[in-house]
Structure formats: C-alpha cells, structure tokens
C-alpha cells in the first residue's frame, strides 16, 4: 500500500512539474491554444479534459488539447552536411574550389577551424543526429561492415533518441533530404522494420537515397518508404538538383500551411562521395584549373589558409608522403587523366554548393533566414582515398582492389562524370585536398581524416559576423548546440524509454564575440576507426601511426590491433597540423594519454578493437536471407535491395525460370541484379535466351541460345559451378533450355565481394542501369509470362 501511495504521489508530482513548466498561450481549451512542453519526458502525459460533459451537448463545454509548440522565438534549423570533403576542399577554408553558399554562412556567422568527424560517413552521421559518440550508438563502422557487438551493430537504439525526435515532439516540422546511411543494410526492404528509417528516427518526411552512395543520374531513391524513379524520361535529371528542388518545395509548403511552425531540415547531399556526378556545364567551368598538379595545389591551399586565418600563422604544412608520386614525376598521359579527375571532383563540389545555396536562398525568400540557425559542415570525413592511387572510372573496381591502368582510363576521358562512369580520383588529390594535414578518410588518428570545415550562422543571435572560432569540437556537439538554441532540454525519457545521456557539449558559448578566444568546453575526445585511434585532451593528442594506407582497401597485412601499433604525440597548442611528433621526448605524457584512451574506449563501447576491413564487409548479418539457400518468386517484382536478395557472390548457384512465350514472341528481363558497373542478367532477346555476367565493367561474359523459343511454356536454367572457395574465383556456367544445353563457358574470375549497392534485384524488368547496354535499355519488361523463378544457392 505504501509503495502504491508513493508511486501515485510521484506521478502527481511529475504532472505538477509538467504543468508548472508548460507555457500555455490563448484561452485553454480553445482551438488556437498552444503549449510548450517541460521536455524532459516525451511525449507529455495526456492532459486532463478541461471542459464539461453533460447528458446534452447544449449543457456541455468543449475543450481542445493545446497544440504543442517550441519555446517562443525558437529558430528554424537548417543542418547541412556534405560528403567526403576534407579541410582543404572548400574555398571558404582556403581551398581552390569556390563555395559561395558556405562563404555566405561564414560571412553571416562564424567559421570553426577545429571541428571534427569520426573519419567515416555513417558513424559521423550517427554522432551528428544523436549527440552521442558513434560507438555509443552502434556505429563504430558503416552498416555494411556491422558486426554483432554493441559498438558496431549499426542499430541506433531506442535509448538514443535523435535530435529530430526531440524537436518533433516539441512542435517542430522535421525532414531529411539526401544521403541516408543510418539504416542497417539488412532493413532496406519494404518489409522493414522501419524504426531505423528516418520515419522511425523522428523525421516527418524523407526524400533521399539509402546507403553510402548512389548513382546521381539513376539513383536508388526513396520518398519516405517508397522507391521512386523521377529520372525516368528525364535525360537531364541529376539528384543533386532534384533533392534541392524537393527541399525548397517542402519548406515552401510548410510556410504556406503553418508559417509560424519552425522547421528542422537535415540536408545531406551525396556530393562529394564517389561517384563524382556533376552536370556537364559545371565540369566545363573547371577545364584546365588543375593542370598545376596536386603538389602546387597543396602549396596554394596552404597559402590561402594562412591568408584567411583558418590555420595559425605558425602552422606547418605536413610532408608529402613517400608512397605517393610527385606531380613532376608523371608522364603526360597521367597528368592529363589526373587533371580531368580533379576537374570533375571540383565541379561536383561547386555544383552541390550551388544547390545548397538555392535552399538557403529559399529560406531567405520567405523572410525566415534571420531566425534560422544554419549549420553547414563541409564533409563527414576527410577526402576519400577509395579511388586508389590511379583513380578509377568505377568505384566498384577500386573498392575491391582492382586498379585500372591510365591508358584504359583515358578511354573514359570525355565521359568522366557522366552516367557511363562511376568515377573517383587519385589518392594524391585526396591527400592534397586535406591540406595542411596528413592522411585521408578512414584514418581516425590524424586530422586529414577528421578535421572538417564548418560554418554556423543565426543572424538574430550570432552578431560576430565573419568571425573565426578555434575551440576544439566534434560532431556530437551539434545536438546540444541545437537544443540550447531552441531552449529545449535533452529528455530523460522518450516514448517510455529512459535515455542515455547526450555526450556532446553545446558550442553556443562561442557565439558571443567576448568568448571568441574562450577555452573549449570540450576537454576530451577519443577517435577510432579500423583500429587507428587517437585521444585528444586539453590541447594534446596522441595518435597511432596507420600501419596500412586506406587506399589498400584492407588488403595489406595488419599488425596486432592491441599491441602492434606505434603511437605519436602532438602538442596542438604549438602544432596545429600534427607535424612534430613528441612521443620520443615526452614518454610520460604519451603513457598518460594512452591510459586515457583505454578509459574512454571502455566508456563508449569501442571494444573489441578490430582492424579488419575486408572480412567485416562479407561477415553474415541478420536479414531475411540469413540461412536461406532457396529463393522462389512468382510473377514480376522490382526493387528488392541487395541485402534481401539471394547473393551469388563467391558461390555456386542455379537460376531456373519457368516462363511462357506468347504467340507473338517475347523480349525482356527474367531476373537481374546489378547493372552497368557489375552484375548479371538472365533475359530473352529476340526470342532467344541470354545470360550475361558483367565483371565490374571490365569484361562481359555471355551465354546465348542459338534457337528461338517457340510459343508456349519453357524452363530456362543457368547453372554456375564455382572454382572456389575464395573471393573472386572463376567457374563454369551452363545455360539450358528445357533440359538441353545451349551454351557452356568458363570464366577465370568473378566479382570479388560486392555487387553494386545502389542497384536492386528485379524479376520481370530492370529498374535501373542495364547489365549489357548493347542488348537493351531499362526497364526492358518481359513481354511473356513468368510462372516461377527460383534461385538455388549451393
């Protein structure tokens, strides 16, 4: 009885505290009444009915619950993050690529010169939207490499509510545009569950693509939970413009419907992650702009950075690495190719910034920019080294350790950046675009992988326009900054679940000019990715030396992850760029920092350490395909994501299609996965059965029947016996029709471990790019009937 009384008493106390914290405007119970929330417990308990109920409505008094609104004056939030862009990319931070939209934010507000990511895309984004370290929310690596440990399972738990969920329940309109790399790959399908999709993370509306990147000409695109294909029939389509158009229209619709309701727009274009897909007119703007080469460009960026004051005057340009060639050592063909790669990358940067500028201008056109907190983060990690030392016409090649010679790449020179390529640039450009630092994306131990240019503006509040701030901060600090700006507290409980503490600290103290040089409120921050690690504390950073370059894509031999790494030590108060290693002269300080890393790592789910890259990519994960070897489909279907499709990679398999050919004959796709940059297709072409295996665009293997299929029912089988086990092994394929062999061929190699992640498994049509351009164009719908299609994995 005493326990029941105590519980009732505490609930009454909680209800009183809610009532005391709320601010109600208008007449209580009237349709226009509003209320703020206490915010610590979301959602609020239902308010008691405040009217009167009699037997007759004429003797009763209605009462409407008040509409939830944020605190008075709470700003709109426009949170922008681009992709794979290091500190030296944007002109705003000394780069040679103009970024006027980022300039606009910086000139209206502040530039931050010591702001950090996690060194990899979806981990950074998980930290950004939750305010917690990436391992704390299951994103120690990207979802495609998730493993079954709390820090690495790619699941943002219900005890880690996102900033969108918090703002939404406090009266904001919330939306997400662009890259969505925080849903586990094994939950992409229409079967869900959707709790890890944007709709389950507090976003009212989502328009964007799933995964690390996508073809910007024919993207793997969703509106909320539904795949959409706006590029069909639109030869000039590009996603960079489309998502800006969608965001602008959405903001205008919100203003028309509820002009006083503040918005939170999370805008995350795919640029400048590969594939580099700007429009031709933007590529033309940069013709010849990179003929000086990466070494001269690096010197120019460094000089610009000092002139702008975005690096200290005593900062040093770190040495050029011995294992990357200097520009002057290259032959003419190499210089021609590499310059073209940089032209297209720069065009992609500038094109994306231009479209971001359109979104910012749309907010201004509505008269809302003065009370909008704009946070523009250039890059979710350093510039990507995943294009290999040579660059590549297809990222699917380089990411699987396949390098294409310069002479063969030059065949794509005029098409570079078009939908005929999926291109990336040489690592040497990536290193130079991370000036003045060492290393690149994937390397969490050095600022080449983690230092991002960031600008923040809120004209109604931030008055030191054009100011520079040097405090040390991290992605996890954005959420508490937003919450302080909106005067909304971090909740203790959301949807009945107690919340883990937000681990970031607010940056709002830095907004006032009087605090321009105030000490950072972030005192300690760990970093870890693929075993490379670092620990920052009050101006010092201890960092491991990467034992293998990230452009080796995990194919190099790795040391013992716990004890096999060399450590470096830097005093950032005197050494902005990590140029002078003090490990040998300050061993006691280094040991202190190493011990601190162990404590922070234990606190934030970093263990177990794992420096394997490749094996984590192919490790089994929960999905609807786990443990299945037989997959049967009836009729046509399209858009099944790779994580929910039968995987033929590195195994034997049999595809059986029971079909009916009409009297008029038939054409069309029976089953396909992948497309122009790798994959397979079994189809009927001019009444003849064809199977094509596209080896990452390097070679096409073709099995074709010589006789036409007569009207009526047929069974077409493609059987492949692998020479495995092992990655990329060859094998023998046999195509049969109604039990008779019609084609047999042996192949020496197959795709090592990844089919295109932005293509889908389709039966009866091909929804994106063709596996063989010479034979057909998508959608190539089958004009006969598919009674049954079976894939048997052996």
Automatic annotation (TrEMBL):
It is an enzyme of class 3 (hydrolase). The keyword Metal-binding applies. Residues 1-21 form the signal peptide. It holds the Pfam family Sulfatase. The keyword Cell membrane does not apply. Its EC number is 3.1.6.1. Residues 75-486 form the Sulfatase N-terminal domain. GO terms for molecular function: arylsulfatase activity. InterPro entries: Alkaline_phosphatase_core_sf, Sulfatase, Sulfatase_CS, Sulfatase_N. Coiled coil: none annotated. Keywords: Calcium, Hydrolase, Metal-binding, Signal. PROSITE patterns: SULFATASE_1 (PS00523). It comes from the Bacteria. Gene3D superfamilies: 3.30.1120.10, Alkaline Phosphatase, subunit A. Belongs to the sulfatase family. This is Arylsulfatase. It comes from Rhizobium viscosum (Arthrobacter viscosus). The lineage of its organism: Bacteria, Pseudomonadati, Pseudomonadota, Alphaproteobacteria, Hyphomicrobiales.
């Amino acid at each position: 009885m005493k326990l029941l009384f105590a519980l009732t008493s505490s609930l009454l106390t909680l209800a009183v505290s809610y009532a005391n914290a709320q601010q109600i405007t208008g007449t209580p119970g009237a349709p226009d009444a509003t209320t703020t929330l206490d915010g610590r417990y979301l959602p609020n308990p239902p308010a008691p009915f405040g009217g009167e109920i009699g037997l007759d409505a004429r003797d009763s008094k209605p009462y409407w619950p008040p509409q939830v609104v944020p605190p008075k004056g709470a700003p709109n939030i426009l949170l922008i993050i681009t992709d794979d862009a290091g500190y030296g990319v944007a002109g705003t931070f000394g780069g040679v690529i103009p970024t006027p939209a980022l300039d606009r934010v910086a000139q209206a507000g502040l530039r931050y010169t010591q702001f950090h990511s996690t060194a990899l895309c979806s981990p950074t984004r998980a930290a950004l939207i939750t305010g917690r370290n990436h391992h704390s929310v299951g994103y120690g690596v990207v979802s495609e490499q998730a493993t079954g440990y709390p820090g690495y399972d790619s699941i943002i738990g219900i005890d880690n509510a996102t900033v969108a969920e918090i703002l939404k329940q406090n009266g904001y309109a919330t939306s997400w545009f662009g890259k969505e790399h925080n849903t586990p790959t094994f939950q992409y399908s229409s079967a869900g569950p959707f709790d890890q999709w944007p709709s389950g993370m507090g976003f009212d509306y989502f328009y964007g693509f799933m995964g690390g990147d996508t073809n910007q000409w024919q993207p793997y695109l969703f509106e909320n939970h539904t795949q959409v294909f706006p590029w069909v029939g639109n030869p000039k389509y590009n996603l960079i413009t489309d998502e800006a158009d969608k965001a602008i229209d959405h903001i205008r619709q919100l203003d028309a419907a509820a002009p006083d309701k503040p918005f939170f727009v999370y805008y995350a274009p795919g640029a400048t992650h590969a594939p580099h897909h700007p429009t031709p007119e933007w590529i033309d703007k940069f013709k010849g702009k990179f003929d000086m080469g990466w070494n001269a460009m690096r010197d120019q960026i460094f000089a610009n950075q000092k002139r702008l004051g975005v690096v200290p005057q005593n900062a040093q340009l770190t040495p050029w690495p011995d294992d990357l060639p200097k520009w002057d050592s290259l032959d003419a063909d190499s210089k021609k190719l590499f310059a073209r790669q940089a032209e297209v990358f720069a065009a992609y940067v500038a094109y994306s910034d231009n479209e971001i500028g359109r979104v910012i201008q749309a907010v201004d056109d509505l008269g809302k920019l003065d009370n909008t907190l704009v946070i523009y983060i250039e890059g979710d990690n350093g510039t990507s080294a995943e294009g290999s030392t040579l660059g590549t016409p297809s990222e699917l090649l380089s990411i699987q350790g396949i390098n294409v010679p310069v002479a063969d790449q030059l065949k794509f020179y005029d098409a570079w950046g078009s939908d005929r390529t999926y291109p990336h640039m040489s690592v040497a450009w990536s290193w130079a675009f991370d000036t003045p630092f060492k290393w690149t994306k994937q390397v969490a131990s050095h600022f080449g992988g983690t230092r991002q240019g960031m600008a923040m503006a809120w004209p109604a509040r931030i008055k030191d326009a054009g100011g520079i701030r040097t405090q040390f901060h991290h992605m996890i600090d954005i959420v508490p900054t937003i919450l302080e700006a909106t005067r909304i507290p971090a909740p203790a409980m959301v949807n009945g679940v107690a919340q883990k503490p937000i681990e970031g600290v607010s940056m709002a103290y830095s907004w006032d000019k009087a605090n321009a040089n105030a000490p950072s409120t972030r005192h300690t921050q760990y970093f870890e990715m693929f075993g490379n690690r670092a620990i920052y504390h009050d101006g010092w950073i201890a960092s491991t030396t990467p034992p293998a370059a990230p452009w080796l894509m995990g194919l190099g031999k790795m040391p013992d992850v716990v004890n096999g790494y060399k450590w470096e030590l830097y005093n950032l108060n005197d050494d902005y760029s990590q140029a002078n290693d003090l490990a040998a002269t300050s061993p006691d300080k280094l040991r202190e920092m190493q011990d601190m890393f162990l404590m922070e790592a234990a606190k934030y789910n970093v263990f177990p350490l794992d420096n394997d890259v490749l094996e984590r990519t192919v490790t089994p994960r929960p999905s609807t395909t786990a443990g299945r070897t037989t997959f049967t489909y009836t009729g046509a279907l399209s858009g099944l994501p790779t994580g929910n499709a039968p995987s033929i990679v590195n195994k034997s398999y049999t595809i059986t299609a029971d079909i009916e050919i009409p009297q008029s004959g038939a054409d069309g796709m029976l089953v396909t996965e992948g497309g122009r940059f790798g994959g397979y297709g079994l189809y009927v072409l001019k009444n003849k059965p064809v199977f094509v295996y596209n080896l990452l665009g390097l070679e096409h293997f073709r099995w074709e029947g010589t006789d036409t299929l007569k009207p009526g029912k047929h069974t077409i089988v493609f059987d492949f016996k692998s020479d495995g086990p092992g990655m990329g092994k060859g094998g023998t394929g046999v195509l049969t029709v109604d039990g008779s062999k019609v084609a047999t061929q042996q192949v020496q190699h197959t795709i090592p471990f990844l089919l295109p992640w932005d293509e889908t498994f389709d039966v009866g049509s091909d929804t994106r790019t063709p596996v063989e351009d010479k034979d057909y164009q998508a959608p190539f719908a089958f004009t006969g009937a598919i009674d049954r299609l079976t894939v048997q994995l052996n």
